[in-house]
Amino acid sequence: MQQRCAHRTSQAARPLLLPLLPHKPAALARSRHLTCRIQAAAAAVSYSDMNGSSSASWQANKAHEVAPLPAPPKSGQSLADVLPYLLKLALSEKQLKWRLGAAFACMLASKAAGLSGPLFLKAAVDTLSAGGAAVLLPAVQCVLCFGLCGVVQHLTKELTYPTFTPISQAVARRVAYQTFSHVLELDITFHMNRRTGRLSRILERGTRSIQMLYRAVLFTFAPTFIELVFVVGLLASRFSPMVALLVGGTFVLYVAWTIAMTQAAVEVRKQVNQLDNLTTSKAVDALLNAETVALFNNRQLEVNQYDHYLRGYQAAAIQTERLSALLNAGQSVILSAGLTCVMVAAVIGGQGAEAMAAAKATGSSMMASAASAMMGGGSGAAAAGAAGAAAAGAAGAAAAAPASFAGALASPGDLVLLQGLLLQLWGPLQFLGWFYREIRQSLVDMEEFFDILKTKNSLPDGTTPLPDVPPSLADKLAAATAAVSNGHNGSSAAAAAAAAAISGSAVSSTDKQSLVEAALLLDQQQHPQHQRLQQQQHHNLGSADPEYGFYSAAADPTLSISGLGLEVELDDVVFGYHPERQVLKGVSFKVKPGESVAVVGPSGSGKSTILKLATRLYDAGSGIVKVNGVDVRDLQTASLRSSVAVVPQDTVLFNDTILQNIRYGKPNASDEEVIAASRMAHLHEAVLRMPDGYSTMVGERGLKLSGGEKQRVAIARAFLRAPRLLICDEATSALDTATEASILGSLNELARGRTSIFVAHRLSTVAGCDRILVLSEGRLVEQGSHAQLIASGGVYKDMWMRQAAEGSSSNNVAEASSDEEADGEPLEPLPAALARGRKE
Ligand SMILES: Nc1ncnc2c1ncn2[C@@H]1O[C@H](COP(=O)(O)OP(=O)(O)OP(=O)(O)O)[C@@H](O)[C@H]1O
């Protein structure tokens, strides 16, 4: 039985997929051609991967395991606000402990080596100053140690950040991943009100800032502070408390100046950011609309507008530069003045000459002297030019010192030591200023970033999964199942019951539906394979037919009427995009499962808005929108949307290949499925005519495709998706009438057994729908079948007659309608009538 069922499906699918089978030479050649195209497409897939356009993630359409972000701080204005957040971010990284420990060990080793170097150098200088042949070896030893310290200092310094980088990169990826996911999850109103370029700049600056803060705080501020404490201590013990006090004072003054100036620059930075956002969004806007710009010959207009923002940006950036120059100048003056004072104090208040003399007298090895110096076991004084005057000045002072200050100085080595230590501080201090400014800027950047993270979806997700059938149908289904199972035994009997029910004129369409459902339930109980296929289609998970890969309900008449359709109901819905303007003013209707409904009416009457409410892009202001009997606000949006396919009014494509763009309807679809869908959408031949076939890149937003081709890509996506609710918003408006007629045929096939809602201006394209809703100024003014509406002679009939009169191709249809009006016979469902009318 199972086999028979599978065979039936495969047989049913055969006509549909026949063109894919290589059973003729021509077909063989074609299939080879197709294979080439697919290979080319595969190449494009890797291209897409490289470009980050996600085919890999398309294959695995499920969330990656990325830890959620902690709640962003209430305010991101100060380090005190942001640091705990950064800490929480880092703490959830697995390797944090050992990496942080290793990075700190490297950093401390680097600092220790950096501070030891001057001590060895001092020892070498003092040794050499003693004179004589015996000092040569110890002096060389000291110099070698000095060199070794330099090597260790730089090697460990270079190891520090790379050791921590995997953590900061992992955090940055997590932040970027979760923020991107958060932004895509936000409601459509958020995206409507944002400018894309601006948003992407904020996200980019935010993630960059997080990395900057780690680097600055962990590897610049903390080590510099430790170093400062150590150096001040060393200076106090070796020279005098005054020297240490002066170094500390210089540092405090330096930091105070940096903070004050940076604070002043914050406002300017905010301005620069704003102008940067505006400039980028202006550029992105113009580039996205390059064709419109060219056609309207508005290049200069765009460039001028861009320049308007650029000029603002330029002015703000110049102000930032001025502030930066002032900051740097002040920092240099403070350091130079401070360090000169330190040197003078060291020279004047030099101490420890005796100790050094004693050290020399004992003739102890210079290594011992260096070691004692490192331990702070002696003190000395030296003089040098301010470190800001650079090493040359210091060296000159060192040379002059023994003569000029022989009485006050302990040794020339002390002078070298002092200068070495001060230079050791000088470098990080310079960076400290730069990093502080960066931190301030990062905090400004992160404020906007946190604002986005804190933005809540104004349409919070519901918790109820989409039920399989609406409650009313479920009841009828149960009754019908019982009836059918009492009367018959076995799936063929169930199918017979369904067939009888369908053909029975006395049975209402909903009851027919119920009986078919009942029959199918019985069938499923006995055909697990059948059930699996149906589930696959339900959840859009995979291909049902191993032979062809592509599954279509249209290929299997039993499945296509399997009641997969959703029930959509609007109950007294009032809605406006802005509170002061209502677009829908109390609209109520119900679309039954499996029913095809058209929404027609003048432009701006709210047709597309209804579709947006049904797919929960917006929530109704008042009234309820229900799908399968559940308020959409309670439904899990994912379960709703995974059951819906929308062919939108304006198809915007991803800048990727045609293959990938179609595959977007079902990310895990095989190439064969994609191509089968493309055939159903009458796109295949057009694609084959393109030089790169399915691997043709469609350009930004699909600009390289014609309007009709874009629409057919969207239709192919819908075929691939095989949805329970098909929504077509002017789906064929960009197509020529012949293509439109054949696509409508395919769409009708697709719509069988599913619920479908069509919005159309050309009434002839939807006259075959089960029901037509006529909307006018946000109100439902008429509804019924085409025949009923024509017969009632209302708004719809006026629209129909007007359209019939307008187009020569519609004349036949108009005649048909008057004939039908005259004799009361129902019209032949379109597009069959449409196609016939056009032929005639
Ligand atoms: N995102 C939006 N923000 C503000 N107003 C909107 C938005 N989308 C649509 N509108 C307005 O709502 C009204 C109804 O729009 P809707 O798109 O539903 O009309 P429609 O009947 O589908 O029109 P058409 O046939 O021209 O597509 C229009 O006046 C439109 O300007």
Automatic annotation (TrEMBL):
<feature type="compositionally biased region" description="Acidic residues">
    <location>
        <begin position="817"/>
        <end position="826"/>
    </location>
</feature>
<dbReference type="InterPro" id="IPR036640">
    <property type="entry name" value="ABC1_TM_sf"/>
</dbReference>
<keyword id="KW-0813">Transport</keyword>
<keyword id="KW-1133">Transmembrane helix</keyword>
<dbReference type="InterPro" id="IPR027417">
    <property type="entry name" value="P-loop_NTPase"/>
</dbReference>
<dbReference type="InterPro" id="IPR003439">
    <property type="entry name" value="ABC_transporter-like_ATP-bd"/>
</dbReference>
<keyword id="KW-0812">Transmembrane</keyword>
<comment type="similarity">
    <text>Belongs to the ABC transporter superfamily. ABCB family. Heavy Metal importer (TC 3.A.1.210) subfamily.</text>
</comment>
<feature type="transmembrane region" description="Helical">
    <location>
        <begin position="213"/>
        <end position="236"/>
    </location>
</feature>
<dbReference type="Pfam" id="PF00664">
    <property type="entry name" value="ABC_membrane"/>
</dbReference>
<dbReference type="GO" id="GO:0005524">
    <property type="term" value="F:ATP binding"/>
</dbReference>
<dbReference type="GO" id="GO:0006879">
    <property type="term" value="P:intracellular iron ion homeostasis"/>
</dbReference>
<dbReference type="GO" id="GO:0005743">
    <property type="term" value="C:mitochondrial inner membrane"/>
</dbReference>
<feature type="compositionally biased region" description="Low complexity">
    <location>
        <begin position="526"/>
        <end position="539"/>
    </location>
</feature>
<feature type="transmembrane region" description="Helical">
    <location>
        <begin position="381"/>
        <end position="403"/>
    </location>
</feature>
<feature type="transmembrane region" description="Helical">
    <location>
        <begin position="415"/>
        <end position="436"/>
    </location>
</feature>
<feature type="transmembrane region" description="Helical">
    <location>
        <begin position="242"/>
        <end position="260"/>
    </location>
</feature>
<feature type="region of interest" description="Disordered">
    <location>
        <begin position="526"/>
        <end position="545"/>
    </location>
</feature>
<dbReference type="GO" id="GO:0140359">
    <property type="term" value="F:ABC-type transporter activity"/>
</dbReference>
<feature type="compositionally biased region" description="Low complexity">
    <location>
        <begin position="807"/>
        <end position="816"/>
    </location>
</feature>
<keyword id="KW-0547">Nucleotide-binding</keyword>
<dbReference type="Pfam" id="PF00005">
    <property type="entry name" value="ABC_tran"/>
</dbReference>
<feature type="domain" description="ABC transmembrane type-1">
    <location>
        <begin position="102"/>
        <end position="441"/>
    </location>
</feature>
<keyword id="KW-0472">Membrane</keyword>
<feature type="transmembrane region" description="Helical">
    <location>
        <begin position="98"/>
        <end position="121"/>
    </location>
</feature>
<dbReference type="InterPro" id="IPR017871">
    <property type="entry name" value="ABC_transporter-like_CS"/>
</dbReference>
<protein>
    <recommendedName>
        <fullName>ABC transporter domain-containing protein</fullName>
    </recommendedName>
</protein>
<feature type="transmembrane region" description="Helical">
    <location>
        <begin position="133"/>
        <end position="152"/>
    </location>
</feature>
<dbReference type="InterPro" id="IPR039421">
    <property type="entry name" value="Type_1_exporter"/>
</dbReference>
<feature type="domain" description="ABC transporter">
    <location>
        <begin position="568"/>
        <end position="802"/>
    </location>
</feature>
<dbReference type="GO" id="GO:0016887">
    <property type="term" value="F:ATP hydrolysis activity"/>
</dbReference>
<keyword id="KW-0067">ATP-binding</keyword>
<feature type="region of interest" description="Disordered">
    <location>
        <begin position="807"/>
        <end position="840"/>
    </location>
</feature>
<dbReference type="InterPro" id="IPR003593">
    <property type="entry name" value="AAA+_ATPase"/>
</dbReference>
<dbReference type="InterPro" id="IPR011527">
    <property type="entry name" value="ABC1_TM_dom"/>
</dbReference>
